[in-house]
Design brief:
This protein has about 160 residues and is mainly β. Helices cover about 5% and strands about 45% of the residues. The strands form two sheets. Strands 1, 3, 4, 6, 9, 10 and 12 form a seven-stranded antiparallel β-sheet that branches. A five-stranded antiparallel β-sheet has the order 2-5-11-7-8, with no helix packed on it.
């Protein structure tokens, strides 16, 4: 009788009540998966040891980095980008959440002007309404800076 009552009760859930299970997924990417936004000569960008490097001693470089979205119906994401900054030169990365039509729902930027290896933490980004949309990451590197990799925790 208990089994029947349990099954019978599930058939009559109030409208709007979801039985959706909560899932977690993460994606780790090397900085070598990033690409220059516009065509550059090989003397400006290099993919070395899983990192993307701006190897020009004078030019800033804009990169676009692919971000897989393992949970298309998630509503939160926690990205971090691991970079090597250059003292007194600004390195900026922007994480974007777009809906299925390409409309930007959230855009968060983080910057550093410090030298050495460091993470850029974007924190929790809530993006209700962007289900089945996409994520994007773009960075502007100062001369001789690099992206070691990036990590996206989707939940």
């Amino acid at each position: 009788m208990k089994r029947f009552a349990l099954c019978f009760g599930l058939l009559f859930l109030p409208l709007g009540v979801s039985l959706k299970a909560h899932a977690f997924a993460d994606v780790a990417q090397g900085g070598n998966t990033c690409s220059p936004v516009k065509e550059t000569s090989p003397s400006i960008f290099a993919r070395i040891n899983n990192a993307g490097w701006s190897i020009s001693p004078t030019d800033y470089l804009s990169l676009s980095c692919p971000v897989a979205r393992p949970l298309p119906s998630s509503t939160k994401v926690w990205p971090v980008v691991y970079v090597q900054g250059i003292a007194n030169k600004t390195l900026t990365c922007t994480f974007v959440v777009s809906d299925v039509y390409g409309v930007v729902m959230k855009s968060v930027s983080k910057s550093t002007s410090s030298a050495g290896n460091q993470p850029l933490y974007f924190g929790d980004i809530t993006h209700a309404g962007a289900g089945w949309g996409s994520y994007g990451l773009s960075c502007t590197l100062p001369p001789l800076a690099r992206i070691h990799g990036y990590y996206v925790y989707d939940y």
